[in-house]
Specification:
This protein is of the alpha+beta class. It is built from eleven helices and 35 strands. Strands 1, 8, 9, 10, 11, 12, 13, 14, 15, 16 and 17 form an eleven-stranded antiparallel sheet that branches. An eight-stranded antiparallel sheet has the order 22-21-24-25-18-19-20-23. A hairpin with a 2-residue loop joins strand 2 and strand 3. It is globular and about 80 Å long.
Length: 626
């Protein structure tokens, strides 16, 4: 696979993410207000939860520290900000300082100015499911550029990426989101709007570039008084987050565009003791390593461990953290009682790891024992600690499930087998690997497809098998009669079956190790045909009944209350202001804009029926202009 081939251009640095947080509902399972869950959005209906307040009162209330009730403790209260930590976030994503740290060029000649070349990009982020979102935050980039000294090495628009392998054990000395990390994978295809001037990427079988990275240690202001002070001035509270990654060749025969294919290694039990004085995310208990992916090409074993080994925060948010050093580990291959050491993994060397993109290559041409074991199709890999008490800290999974549809959308009452993913509708399925070999439909055992209803966050659903004889490449079919958020995962062996409850799945190791497809079914539960001059028109025009009050109630109010960054461009509660931008709204809600940062709304949660209503009102306004 190409991620494991040369050349690799590896980068490291910091970026800024600016998510809006009023839609997060992080508190809904823990706090109530006036007897209702403390969550500002009903993401099933895509409607604000205002607790009976007027719009003005609600906007003021969400930005202040409020006293709320603790779930399960009738006499206990807590204080928190209902809009959470970044009410004015505009979903923007931008680099602060990212540059090339190392190049593994193979036989290619490396330009002298490629080391240190600067990565820049523009784009937005948004969750598929804003309410208890993991594991699928989406990354939309309009363009990324790698350049230095007047030379453009790379410029183009990547595919949409979705965060996976979300790991709350990523830092042993930071809690909650600050201690988390996630893996993201895009592809950039060759074409007239793409520049690829990277050494070794000109071969005719190279179809483009893989853009793969890991994000970790998000740091932002978390003091309530400071957050309230920002809100008084309408300011944002973005996170600064570490980024490390790789550009690698995308070959024309590749069919997986969301991650490296190969052999997956996981740890389903937390066994590594955390520092005695650490605050780690497991509540002071042991931690587990995040997954790694292996690939064998002839006598080279390559391991992608970019997300695997946690950091140990030392109290300086301006400096990179050292790795948490829990002792030496080695990659080992075994079968039928025989084993051979492939080699040590020097995970504590952060500089070398960044320079190599955290891909470790092992040459076994002189390792006869390993070569012999790998002739057996049942041979499997482990990562073994030198500490006998720890043993295997990663072990090869029985099956590795990979999908190109990690974060997808459907419409209520719409097709149950076509989903919006990369700007167009497509089918959803999975590929399955065992011991590095992709299984065909004929030789893959039956797959069970499990579905969780993932909202409301305070009372999600249990795992339900919706298919028990599923095969690789088969089209997933889901019931779209109800809107909401759903998560799908997959198993073959009994040991791979997910936990019964979604609340358990959301926590490690499941959220980190298990394959997942996140689906958002957008609500179309109101018939708006009464508001159209011709309800059967492809793009209807509003009639006299379609007033601004109707559009505000059914469409714009959610965004006015929960995403105030939009109001800095267009006050969404003002008929004259919205009418002034009717042409711009029509342009920004075109389906052709969906993959760009210019699409409205950036949250991608406006259903077809509501989008049609808004656009019909805009056409009505434009038709009446002289």
């Amino acid at each position: 696979m190409s991620l494991f081939d040369y050349p690799r251009i590896n980068f490291v640095g910091t970026i800024q993410l600016n998510p809006g947080t009023a839609n997060n509902d992080d508190y809904a399972a823990n706090f109530t207000y006036k007897g209702q869950p403390l969550g500002l959005i009903d993401s099933k209906k895509v409607e604000p939860r205002t607790y009976g307040m007027s719009d003005a009162d609600f906007i003021a209330w969400v930005q202040q520290v409020q006293t709320v009730d603790v779930v399960g403790s009738p006499s206990q209260t807590a204080q928190t900000i209902p809009a959470e930590w970044n009410y004015y976030g505009d979903m923007d994503s931008s680099p602060l300082s990212v540059s090339v740290a190392g190049v593994q060029a193979g036989n290619a000649t490396v330009p002298s100015n490629l080391i240190g070349a600067t990565l820049t990009f523009s784009g937005v982020i948004t969750d598929v499911n804003s309410e208890g979102s993991p594991p699928s935050t989406q990354f939309f980039f309009d363009n990324i550029t790698l350049a230095a000294g007047g030379t453009t090495f790379l410029s183009g628009a990547p595919s949409k990426g979705a965060c996976q392998c979300l790991n709350f054990y990523r830092n042993v000395n930071l809690t909650a989101d600050a201690g988390a990390g996630g893996y993201v994978y895009h592809v950039i295809r060759k074409g007239p709007k793409t520049t690829i001037n990277l050494p070794g990427f000109g071969a005719p079988d190279v179809a483009g570039v893989i853009f793969r990275y890991y994000l970790y240690r998000p740091i932002s202001i978390n003091d309530n008084a400071q957050i309230v002070a920002l809100y008084k001035e309408g300011k944002t509270n973005p996170v600064t987050i570490q980024m490390a990654g790789t550009f690698a060749p995308l070959y024309d025969h590749e069919t997986i565009f969301t991650g490296p294919a190969g052999r997956l290694m996981v740890a389903n039990t937390a066994t590594i003791p955390s520092p005695p004085k650490g605050k780690n995310n497991a509540g002071g208990g042991p931690i587990a390593l995040a997954p790694g992916t292996l690939h064998q090409k002839n006598n080279i074993i390559s391991a992608d461990f970019i997300g695997t080994f946690p950091e140990n925060y030392q109290g300086n948010p301006g400096l990179p953290d050292p790795k948490f050093d829990f002792g030496p580990v080695s990659l080992v291959v075994s079968v039928a009682g025989a084993s051979a050491v492939i080699g040590p993994v020097d995970y504590a060397n952060v500089a070398a790891g960044n320079q190599s993109g955290w891909i470790f290559d092992f040459d076994i041409s002189g390792n006869a024992a390993a070569q012999q074991i790998l002739k057996d199709s049942d041979a499997s890999f482990t990562l073994e600690s030198s500490n006998p008490a720890l043993g295997n800290v990663l072990q090869e999974a029985g099956h590795y499930f990979v999908s190109n549809q990690q974060g997808i959308y459907a419409e209520q009452h719409g097709s149950g087998e076509l989903f919006l993913n990369q700007g167009i509708e497509e089918h959803a399925t999975v590929h399955v690997y065992r011991r590095g070999r992709e299984l065909s439909s004929a030789d893959c055992p039956p797959i069970t497809v499990w579905q969780y209803r993932s909202i409301p966050l305070e009372s999600p659903g249990n795992a339900v098998p919706i298919a028990t004889n599923f095969k690789p490449g088969q089209r997933m079919v889901v019931d779209t009669s109800q809107p909401g958020n759903f998560l799908f995962t997959f198993s073959i062996d009994a040991a791979e079956a997910p936990p019964t409850g979604y609340s358990t799945f959301m926590n490690p190791p499941y959220i980190t190790n298990y394959p997942a497809i996140s689906l958002r079914i957008l609500p179309n539960c109101v018939d708006f045909s009464q508001y159209y001059a011709d309800p059967h028109a492809m793009e209807p025009v509003g009639n006299d009944s379609l007033t601004f009050e109707v559009v505000y109630r059914y469409v714009l109010r959610t965004y006015y209350l929960l995403y105030p960054s939009m109001n800095q461009v267009i006050p969404l509660n003002s008929e004259p202001a919205v009418a002034k931008y009717a042409s711009a709204i029509l342009a920004r809600t075109e389906q052709s804009m969906w993959m760009t940062s210019g699409y409205m709304p950036r949250t991608r949660d406006m259903s077809l029926s509501r989008r049609t209503l808004l656009r019909a009102w805009c056409r009505k306004v434009l038709a009446r202009k002289p």
